[in-house]
Each structure stands twice: as structure tokens, then as C-alpha cells.
Design brief:
The structure holds two protein chains of two kinds. Helix content of chain A is 40%, strand content 10%. Chain A has eight helices and four strands; from the N terminus they run αααααβααβββα. In chain A, helix 3 runs antiparallel to helix 4 and helix 4 crosses helix 5. Chain A is elongated, with a radius of gyration of 18 Å. The two termini of chain A are 24 Å apart. Chain B has 17 helices and nine strands. By secondary structure, chain B is of the alpha/beta class. The chains are: A alpha+beta, B alpha/beta. Chains A and B meet through helix 1, helix 3 and helix 6 of A and helix 7, strand 3, strand 5 and helix 13 of B.
Chain lengths: 185, 429
């Protein structure tokens, strides 16, 4: 996040990261403001920068709060209600905080045919959660996802900003253990 | 990760030739593989000549609709009165399809080159690549390639020293199937909900930012450099009169060797399923195949003799769609499979049109009820009725997309539905 981004890709950064700071200030540092400028320079209208800026806030905080939406509305000269109407349309924007690791199990048709329902169950069982809940240690949130576009590698699971492919229920404990290790718990 | 499976590498060398070679991702490696040769050639051609060459090649859109690419380009105004835009549709979201991700993660410069040639043909000076948000690793690869292309002068001011300038911006979506529909994509790109709009106006008249716009799929654009380098007849050596060239086939479901295979259009479907992909594991029989992604009609295991051209699959009662066969073997409960597909469309309906918003949800609920053993035979009539109500009455084709698999599964696998309704059992083995 610290490198200076080329304007063409300034708005196109992965925004579901494990290493994020929910309390980081938004659009306050010079670096952030430069990036906002770079994003705005790529579109003929301010409004078009809405998704990139929502993603920017998400990248930083791991979710988008109404405060973030108000700030974005201010930058783009939109109403907060409009920003909320757009943010609420897209499934990848978390509208509330989630666990450090967001685990999204694709259960769409090709994964479904290859046992995705059992994979989802296994993640829920091993994290001790119900779908959409965050585990008590704050580490994991498991949700069901629609097609991730990796149908030949079923079951596909998106963990933060990476895909794990060909996941079976048997691989789940290992995957969770690795994630737990990364965060030092 | 290495590219998993290959098929007949020597004869099908357009799109997948360098997949699996990490060096091909970088500009240096790409140039060593003949990269940007097509762009160089295109810069010496008039825009209309490029469009004419693509028209002659017979290339058809690879995003699902199969519209001839050159003809689409020719709808753009010949004399720009303001900016023109090209949008590369990289929102790959049709269940079953996973080809654009492979193109972008292995050969990002192929896409950039294709975008540039297309932009030149339609007289655009800004390209937006709309990538689905989930593709984070792909976005990283793409970002790096775009920066490299800018630094080396393939993008930006005076492309390759010519008098023509072209910018390219990578734009990331945030999870919405309907953003893959061309007008939904443009709504989203303009900072809105990804709601499709009525045509006309067609994108070539008034598209993104109210300017003439062309939206092309990633695979379509990636097919263009080869055509410009080698000429239209080179591309026509593959496929049939109406379905030219090669195509990435995304094979998934119950298969021994699922994956992406680049094949000439027109290979019989049973050959793809059995010879290329090894058929279902454990020697089980194929019960059903959805040949073109989840929004195309079911074929039974006995209907796989059809040839996989646009016209061949249409004749067989289905569609080529995104060339993404989803194979279901005899252990599949087709009701459960259809229910899962219907849930997807219910979830992804943007909600603008009542028929679609309500209808897709009803279909999913009815199927779920039948699956839980609480169905009645009248439900099948209701489902047929919904098929009628949902066809051709909405702004976009999302509603139609659930009707194709639903109606065909009701027609072809009625025994499955009746077994659940009458005996609370299943015909899967």
C-alpha cells in the first residue's frame, strides 16, 4: 500500500486484505490524497470514482462504515444516501466488520457438484460459527459465495485476497491452522 | 501454479499457447514471444481496415451472445464528435466460465494489446478494463502489466511512437453478476448500481459517460492480435463458416480432468466431455450437460453428438454461451442442481424489473419446496407458467437466463421432478 501507484491502477487494488487497520484515518495523509487525485484523473466524471473510493476505504478498514461513506460522498460531491444505495448493491463491500480472515466458499453449481456444501459445513464446524458470524477469537468469518469464476478447480474458496482451489473438507483444518499461525494466535 | 492440462497444443495456438509460462507475464518475456507485433501492424492500418479484417475473420463475441465483433465495431461513428470508449468486460461471472481469468493471469499483455487494437479500430482513446472484484491476484498481474506497458510506450501518449494516444484504466468491480451485462457494466463503471438499461440507445450510440462505447469480452479482445498479425483467413482455418477460430472451453462439474482447453470450434461435445476431459470420474455415466454456462439449456447424456459451433448448439436446442460445459453424472440430483442454479439468479437479479425480481425468487422457492418433499404436481405447471412470464419481458436477459436451464430440465428430466413430488425420492444413482 505504501508504494506510489500509477494512476491507471490507483483505483484497482485488492481490497479484502488480512493486514488492515480498522482505525486508520481515511483520506487524511498526503499519500492517500495523492491516490484520490490519481483515481479522479482517470474518469470524466467524479461519480465514476465511487467504486474505486469505496474499495479504497474497504482496503484500509476491512469494511465500509457510514462515516466512510459520508467522507466519500464529500469528496465526490454526492449525497451519503446515494453512496449507501450503491455500496449496498455490491456483495463484496462489507457493511459491518468481519473477522480478520474472511472465508468465502463458492457453492455455485460446479462447486456444488463437487461437494462445496460439505466444504462450507466443514469451515463452519471448525471455526465454531454460523454463516456470517465471526468466531469468538475474532479471526474468522465464513460466508457462502456465488460463483468465483474458478469452476474447473472446484471447490473454490476465497480467503481474503487469495483463492484456494480444489478444497475438500479434509483440507479445512490445515487451512485454518495456517491462517491462525499467520496472525500469531 | 502450473497450467493443469493441455490438449493438442500444436494446432490450437492462439490464446492458451503461453499459459503456464510465468515469463510470458512480463513485458520482456511477452516481446520475446512476438508480443505487440499486432499492435505495430494495426498502427499502420486505417481504423476501418482493422474493423474490416476482424469482420472477415468471422470472430464472434466470446462473452456469451456471439455477436460478430467486426460488425459491432462498425456501429461506432466513423467521425468522432467527442470521446469514444472501449470497455473490456472482465467481469467473468457466468457460472461455469473461468477463461478470462486464465487469459489475464497468464498473458495480461495479450489482453492489453487486443484492447489497443480494438480501441484504434473504434477510434477510442481510453480503455477501461472492468475486472470482477474477486480476482485479486489477477488484478495484481494486470496492474503490473499495465504499468509496464505505460513505461515502455505501448500505452499513453503517442502509442509506439505513432500519432495516436490511448489511455487504459483498470477498474475493479465489487461483486455483482449483472455487472457482466454490457449496460450493467457501464452503469457500474459510471459509479452506480450495476443496473442494465433499455436499448436503444445502443452503446455505440450512447454508452458510458454518454459517449459512443464498445463493450467486448476479454477472450474476444485476446483473439484480435493473432488475426491482425496473421490475417483473417488464418483465423478461418479453424471452425465452421459461421463459427470461426478457436475457443477456450471451460470444462467443469463431474470430470476426471476439468480445466480450460483451447479447441477449434466445432468439436463434437461428446469428444470434449469424454476424450478431452476424461468423462466423469469412476466411469460413471453422463446424465446431463449444460454446454455454455449456467444460463444455457440442459442437454441429456444422449444428446452429446452435437457439434460445438454457435449454430450446432443452437440446433441441438441449447447455446454455445461462454463455452463452459458443466457436466453432471448419474449421481446428480438434477432437481437440486436446478435449485442451486435458480438460487443464483434470484440472488443476482438487480431488482429493477418485477417479473425478474419476483419470478426468480419464486422459482428458487418452489424448487426448494419440491426438494424438501413438499411439492405438488401443480408446481410444475406454475414453473412452466413462470418460464412464460419471465421470457422477453425484462430490460436485460437475466430472467431469460434462468428460463433456459429451467424449461429444458422440466422438459427433459420430468421424471426427476415427479419422483420428488410423488415419492419424495430421487432418480440419481
Amino acid at each position: 500500500m505504501s508504494r506510489r501507484l500509477h494512476p491507471s491502477v490507483a483505483g484497482a487494488q485488492p481490497f479484502q486484505l488480512a493486514d488492515r487497520d480498522p482505525d486508520a484515518p481515511l483520506f487524511e495523509t498526503e499519500e492517500d490524497l495523492d491516490r484520490v487525485e490519481a483515481i479522479l484523473s482517470r474518469y470524466p466524471t467524479k461519480r465514476a470514482a465511487l467504486l474505486p473510493l469505496l474499495s479504497f476505504a474497504h482496503e484500509l478498514h476491512g469494511w465500509i462504515s457510514t462515516d466512510d461513506m459520508e467522507k466519500i460522498a464529500g469528496v465526490l460531491e454526492l449525497t451519503p444516501a446515494y453512496v449507501w444505495s450503491v455500496a449496498s448493491f455490491y456483495t463484496m463491500y462489507n457493511k459491518r466488520p468481519c473477522g480478520r480472515h474472511l472465508i468465502q466458499v463458492c457453492t455455485n453449481i460446479s462447486c456444488f457438484l463437487n461437494g462445496a456444501t460439505d466444504v462450507l459445513e466443514s469451515f463452519l464446524e471448525h471455526t465454531g460459527t454460523r454463516e456470517g458470524e465471526t468466531s469468538e477469537d475474532g479471526l474468522f468469518t465464513v460466508i457462502e459465495a456465488e460463483c468465483l469464476g474458478a469452476c474447473g478447480f472446484a471447490t473454490a474458496v476465497q480467503i481474503n485476497d487469495e483463492y484456494q482451489e480444489n478444497v475438500t473438507p479434509g483440507k479445512v483444518p490445515q487451512i485454518l491452522a495456517e491462517l491462525g499461525k499467520d496472525t500469531g494466535s | 501454479m502450473a497450467y493443469p492440462y493441455r490438449h493438442d497444443r500444436e494446432t490450437t495456438t492462439i490464446l492458451s499457447r503461453h499459459m503456464g509460462e510465468p515469463e510470458a507475464r512480463g513485458l520482456k518475456g511477452w516481446l520475446e514471444r512476438g508480443g505487440y507485433e499486432g499492435l505495430g501492424k494495426a498502427l499502420e492500418m486505417e481504423p476501418a481496415e482493422i474493423t474490416e479484417a476482424v469482420k472477415e475473420s468471422g470472430l464472434r463475441g466470446r462473452g456469451g451472445a456471439g455477436f460478430p465483433t467486426g460488425i459491432k465495431w462498425s456501429f461506432m461513428p466513423a467521425e468522432p464528435r467527442g470521446p469514444h470508449y472501449l470497455c473490456a468486460n472482465a467481469d467473468e461471472s457466468e457460472p461455469g466460465a473461468f477463461k478470462d481469468r486464465e487469459i489475464m493471469r497468464w498473458t495480461p499483455h495479450l489482453l492489453i494489446e487486443g484492447c489497443l487494437i480494438a480501441a484504434r479500430a473504434i477510434r477510442a482513446e481510453h480503455v477501461y478494463i472492468y475486472v470482477r472484484g474477486e480476482f485479486f491476484p489477477v488484478i495484481r498481474v494486470l496492474d503490473e502489466a499495465v504499468e509496464e506497458a505505460y513505461e515502455a510506450g505501448y500505452l499513453g501518449e503517442r502509442v509506439m511512437g505513432s500519432g495516436w494516444s490511448c489511455d487504459l484504466t483498470v477498474h475493479v468491480g465489487a461483486g455483482a453478476y449483472i455487472a457482466g451485462e454490457e449496460t450493467g457494466l457501464m452503469s457500474s463503471l459510471m459509479g452506480g448500481r450495476a443496473e442494465p438499461w433499455m436499448k436503444p440507445p445502443f452503446p455505440a450510440q450512447r454508452g458510458v459517460f454518454d459517449a459512443p462505447t464498445t463493450v467486448n469480452n476479454v477472450e474476444t479482445l485476446a483473439s484480435v492480435p493473432g488475426i491482425i498479425v496473421n490475417g483473417p483467413s488464418w483465423f478461418r482455418q479453424w471452425g465452421s463458416e459461421k463459427s470461426t477460430g478457436t475457443k477456450l472451453w471451460c470444462c467443469s462439474g463431474h470430470l476426471t480432468k476439468p480445466g480450460n482447453y483451447e479447441l477449434e470450434l466445432g468439436v463434437p461435445l461428446h469428444e470434449i466431455v469424454h476424450d478431452v476431459c476424461g468423462g466423469p470420474p469412476g466411469g460413471r455415466k453422463v446424465r446431463a450437460v449444460i454446454p455454455g454456462g449456467s444460463s444455457t439449456a440442459f442437454l441429456t447424456g444422449d444428446e452429446l453428438d452435437c457439434v460445438t459451433t454457435y449454430e450446432g448448439l443452437l440446433e441441438a436446442g441449447s447455446s454455445l454461451g461462454t463455452a463452459s460445459p458443466i457436466v453432471m453424472d448419474e449421481s446428480t440430483c438434477l432437481l437440486a442442481a436446478m435449485r442451486r442454479i435458480a438460487q443464483f439468479y434470484a440472488h443476482e437479479s438487480c431488482g429493477q424489473c418485477v417479473q425478474c425480481r419476483e419470478g426468480t425468487a419464486w422459482i428458487a422457492k418452489i424448487l426448494q419446496r419440491i426438494e424438501q418433499g413438499e411439492g405438488a404436481l401443480e408446481d410444475l405447471e406454475t414453473l412452466y407458467d413462470l418460464c412464460e412470464q419471465l421470457t422477453g419481458r425484462t430490460i436485460c436477459v437475466l430472467a431469460d437466463s434462468v428460463v433456459f436451464p429451467l424449461r429444458s430440465s422440466l422438459d427433459k428430466f420430468r421424471d426427476e421432478y415427479e419422483a420428488h413430488i410423488l415419492r419424495n425420492s430421487c432418480t440419481a444413482t
